[in-house]
Amino acid sequence: MRFRTLRVPLPELDPALEGLRIVHLSDFHLGFPSRATRAVERAVEWAASREPDLVLISGDLLAHPRGEARLRALASRLPRCFAVLGNHDFAEGRDPFSRPAPIEELSPATLLFDRAETIVVRRRTVQIAGVDPRSYQLGRAHPERLADPDADLRVLVCHFPGVLDRLPPGAFHLVLAGHMHSGQICLPYPGGKLRLSQIRWRYAEGLYRRRAAVMHVSPGLGTTFVPFRFFARPEATELILQSD
């Protein structure tokens, strides 16, 4: 797997938040036997060792209820952690091995269902908003209504990267998403790779800058359908914010 640090330029970043560090994790899919379980454990160990300002997890935490105990043990090790759920937490997908495992809380981590929380970091207000995957898929999610214009930094966490195209400019500074697994099964070719499950997707992994916001799409850690990846390495990412 890969541990990666990315510098993320944000327009109008408050100078006091220069260098703020966010560890972004996604797509654990715990409960389904695979090598990905070890990747999640290593990612959590690494995230805790980095002592970041925030840990944000963008969904698909569980693939089966039997993974819940491990999820809770791992989440308890993550400092200042906020998370959302994804479609696989509700077994809403084409994976025949998934079973519904929706959880309502993940204490001491905070689960966000179409709501936001504001915390103080470096004497500045940081708002973290989270999207419920059920309302998103029904077209009923309006995360821009959660945004506090007075917050010094506004971060949106949504499992689905397509949320970026639904946001008005300026609602959030940073959007974090997952879901894509970087294709999970990919075919290499000169100068790139063909993501078999995402041939037509606009956002697959990495940083994207649009009028609405800057978005990071995590390659994720787990798997679905088959218990392995091919040319799509699992990744834990540390984002370091800097002024644009």
Task: Provide a compact summary of the structure.
The protein is mainly beta and 244 residues long.
* CATH C-level: Alpha Beta
**Quaternary structure classification:** single chain
The structural domain count equals 1
- Spans where pLDDT lies below 50 across 5 or more residues: none
The radius of gyration is 17 Å
- Please provide the count of β strands: 14
Main sheet strand line-up: 1-14-2-3-4-5
Structural class: mainly beta
User: What is the CATH topology assignment?
Assistant: Purple Acid Phosphatase, chain A, domain 2
Major β-sheet, in short? 6 strands, mixed
Structure, described:
This protein has 244 residues and is mainly β. The protein has one domain (2-243): Purple Acid Phosphatase, chain A, domain 2, CATH 3.60.21. Helices cover 11% and strands 30% of the residues. It is built from three helices and 14 strands. Strands 1-14-2-3-4-5 form a six-stranded mixed β-sheet, with helices on one face. The protein has a six-stranded mixed β-sheet with strand order 6-7-8-9-13-12, with no helix packed on it. Strand 7 (124-130), helix 3 and strand 8 (153-157) form a beta-alpha-beta unit. The longest helix has 15 residues, at 36-50. The protein is globular and about 45 Å long. The mean pLDDT is 89.
